[in-house]
Amino acid sequence: MSMGLQRQTRREVERVQSRAIVAKLAEDGRALLTNTALEHVGALTALEQHLITVAPLGEARYREIVDSYTLGAAAAIRRWG
């Protein structure tokens, strides 16, 4: 293989590897964001449930707040990837 062809091949391999690394990092980031959102939604839902038993008159407000967070988190995950 000529030196020019070797250089061209090496550059193409490096481009492919770079794209793969960036894709993996993006996927890892989306997974981390999703995991964090799930943890937060779970904690907020548990708090919502607790508050409904403690102060039931706020039930509609608690649900609205937790639902709003959940929708925002889902939108952020969709935008990520």
Tertiary shape: rod-shaped
Tell me the Rg in angstroms.
23 Å
Which spans have pLDDT < 50 for at least 5 consecutive residues? none
Helix-strand pattern: HH
- Strand content of the residues, in percent? under 5%
> What is the helix content?
over 70%
Largest sheet: none
Output mean pLDDT.
95
Distance between the termini: 40 Å
Keywords:
2 helices, rod-shaped, 81 residues, mainly alpha
List the helices and strands and how they pair.
Layout: H1 3-54, H2 59-80
Textual characterization of the structure:
The protein has two helices and no strands. With about 80 residues, the protein is mainly α. The longest helix has about 50 residues, at about 5-55. The two termini are about 40 Å apart.
Short description:
Helix content is 91%, strand content 0%.
